[in-house]
Amino acid sequence: MREVKLWVRAEDGGAPALSSNVSVRLVIVDEKENAPQVLYPPAAPLAAGAGWAGVELAPRSAESGALVAKVVAVDADAGRNAWLSYELAKATEPGLFRVGLHSGEVRTGRAGTDLESPRRNVFVLLRDWGQPPRSVTGTLSIVLVRG
């Protein structure tokens, strides 16, 4: 919320001149019109309104809790309406990854050395704290590599 204060003075052209002063206080409130926008990972081309998609590489030998990626997003609203939360909406392999509620950090939930397929999809839901909340869902494809 922003506040602007100003003084307005009105004076007529009569003789003697009459005038008056008034203080005006404008309070600008956020209308909650913006949804979160993902800055990182860079979005892959998608159909309009389809959310976002990104690709990250992670070592198969990563220990449980290792940082794999970080989803970075902003919301153009003000105050509490711009606060963001992140959650794991869906994953091709449940338990393999987890998402930090306030950080957007994607970490391994367990070691992934026994996996047959090297590519895993994590669907991340970003939600702001506005009323009503606005959200965007995206896909983070994590490619597990040797090393």
UniProtKB/TrEMBL annotation:
InterPro entries: Cadherin-like_dom (IPR002126), Cadherin-like_sf (IPR015919), Protocadherin/Cadherin-CA (IPR050174). One of its GO terms (molecular function) is calcium ion binding. It is a single-pass type I membrane protein. Keywords: Calcium, Cell adhesion, Cell membrane, Glycoprotein, Membrane, Repeat, Signal, Transmembrane, Transmembrane helix. Pfam families: Cadherin (PF00028). Residues 59-144 form the Cadherin domain. GO terms for cellular component: plasma membrane. It is found in: Cell membrane. The keyword Ligase does not apply. The keyword Signal applies. GO terms for biological process: homophilic cell adhesion via plasma membrane adhesion molecules. This is Cadherin domain-containing protein. It comes from Patagioenas fasciata monilis.
